Amino acid sequence: MPEAARGSYHHGDLRATLIATAMGMLERGEAFSIRAVAREAGVSATAPYRHFPDREALESALAAEGLRDLAADLAGGRALPRTPEELAEFGVAYVEFALRRPALFRLMFGNECNTDDEERVQAAAAVHELLAAAITGVFPDSDPLDLALGGWGVVHGLAFLYLDRKLSAASTEEVATQVRASVRAVFAARPRT
Amino acid sequence: MPEAARGSYHHGDLRATLIATAMGMLERGEAFSIRAVAREAGVSATAPYRHFPDREALESALAAEGLRDLAADLAGGRALPRTPEELAEFGVAYVEFALRRPALFRLMFGNECNTDDEERVQAAAAVHELLAAAITGVFPDSDPLDLALGGWGVVHGLAFLYLDRKLSAASTEEVATQVRASVRAVFAARPRT
DNA sequence: GGTCAATGTATGCGGTGCTCACATTGAGCC
DNA sequence: GGCTCAATGTGAGCACCGCATACATTGACC
After folding, report:
1. Which nt has its C1' nearest the CA of A15?
2. Mean pLDDT of A172-193
3. Integer angstrom CA distances of residue B127 from A192, B68, B70, B106
4. A91, A188, B62, B168: most buried by Cβ count inside 10 Å?
5. Structural domain boundaries in chain B
6. Measured between CA atoms, how close is A140 to chain B, in angstroms?
């Protein structure tokens, strides 16, 4: 890698700059386009194509970073849950991530991902395993795979339903309360006798 | 309403034709644009704007139709479930709808919906109520709202995870088996003693 | 039969992703 | 130090998009 040469013809580290710029636009909720990212990075419209073959590749890189952030968010400062109540907090954290960074969350999950991006595949697997481990710790007697999938489904579905305004909620606190209640209710349900 | 005048200057029933054409393109998995729909309907690129103020309005109309189809699909030829097993089949039907008509399902759920379209809001509410009724019938002792939300979350989340290829599955049969197992597992989970 | 609102068309603007030919330059070799 | 070359930037251009605006056609009603 050559030393950065900011201000000269060659940018120095365009790839990283493009990712950072694009991520910033996502956080600000702005629409996203290769050209817009290039513009904001102060570079010609075609320069990004030297570093990403197409738009999807840039999105994949952002998604991978988002998945790592999500995993860190879920794991960070929190022990693996041991009770349904603690598990519910895990789910709340998942949904809150989605609401805090909606555009990024959609990029991570809201489209068919290409399985070519090794980095992205690995980051997704890490999230999957983290959720599975959380569930297995709380419900050791159940089939871990089935239950982990169901548990992921609950929080993932709720996240998207709130994101897409299919459920009304006045505030993020209200969302958290509702998610907590729903996760607990599902895992505590008893069929009619 | 004037009589149809096919072949003449005025189309006769462009609005319905546009919806049908667009729905056909969705089913075929084709990309979707106002211009492409107009082209396929044999009409100028700007004609659709006489019937839909913008692209989102057309999408909303399609989404409303899709929501009605989903409700009919779930309710049709099936009594409300009385056991967790029957409830799981309800969930399987939800996910199978998503996999059978992926582009439509994304239109229905995969974006912030505008709450202006009265028809769409009503269709969405019907689906919501149907799911809530299904769950309440199986688990009469739980808080119906919390549980209905959680149950919707499970199937909705699984539907999107499969749609987005976050979960691998070789066939729709395999998906159905997995969804069935996961829904049952969630509602049967018992925490560590 | 004339009028008018509804509904079609043609043209054009600014945006997009992406390709291709060309420019610049830093690094490595002599 | 100068040459060469691959990496990485630029610019012009294509086909497409959503949408606005001005204009054309026509069926329904008086």
Report:
1. D8
2. 89
3. 23, 8, 7, 15
4. A91
5. 3-50, 55-188
6. 6
The residue among A186, A192, A193 with the most chain B CBs within 10 A of its CB, best to mutate, is A186
Q: How far apart are CA A98 and CA A70, in angstroms?
A: 9
**A84-133 residue pLDDT tens:** 999 999 999 999 999 999 999 999 998 887 778 889 999 999 999 999 99
B96, B144 contact by CB (below 8 A) = no
**Within 10 A of B121 (CB to CB), how many other CB atoms are there?**
16
Q: Is the pTM of this model over 0.90?
A: yes
Closest residue (Cα, C1') to C10: B44
Closest chain A CA to residue B125: A166
| CATH class of the region A55-188 | mainly alpha
Alpha-carbon dihedral sign for residues A105, A144, A135, B183: positive
Helix A14-27 × helix A55-75 angle, to 10°:
70
Q: C-alpha angle B11/B31/A54, rounded to 5°?
A: 145
Type of residue at B173: E
| The pLDDT of residue A12 is above 80 | no
Mean pLDDT taken over chain B: 90
Q: Is A46 helix (H, G, I), strand (E, B) or coil?
A: coil
Q: Which two tokens stand for residue B115?
A: 């709450």
pLDDT band with cut points at 50, 70 and 90 for residue B147:
very high
Q: Under DSSP, is residue B10 helix (H, G, I), strand (E, B) or coil?
A: coil
| CB-strand contact A77/C, under 7 Å | no
Return positions of chain D under 7 A from a protein CB. 8-13, 16-22, 25-28
Chain A residue with minimum CA distance to B139 = A191
In tens, the pLDDT along B149-170 reads 999 999 999 999 999 988 888 8
